[in-house]
Fold this protein.
Amino acid sequence: MILKDVSSAELEIMKIIWSAGKPVIITDIWREIQGHDWTYQTVQTFVNRLNAKGYIKIAGKQVRSYLYVPAFTRAEYVVLSRGDLLDGSDGASIADVLALMIERGKCDEAQLAKIRRIVD
């Protein structure tokens, strides 16, 4: 599956949908947007684009609003959209990325323990 690129604004919308953990309506997303003066219609445009690109899907309807859910998890997004960059060559392996994440403080002990369990 090849995904169409998302803009940084669309990715912000995706982060809100992923973090919700339940179906959301556009109003839910609009209320969560921080640091933008986006109108409801702007958020609606981004949601419609994400739906057309296959990043989200309609899970039902609530009164006059559609309920949206992600089409895949955040981890699946990373693999589907950028996974080809991790081709295993020098500097482009999962181990290289993990080492850099640890070095930059992006991976705590709980995450390392989870990784150890998966590897074992």
The radius of gyration is 17 Å.
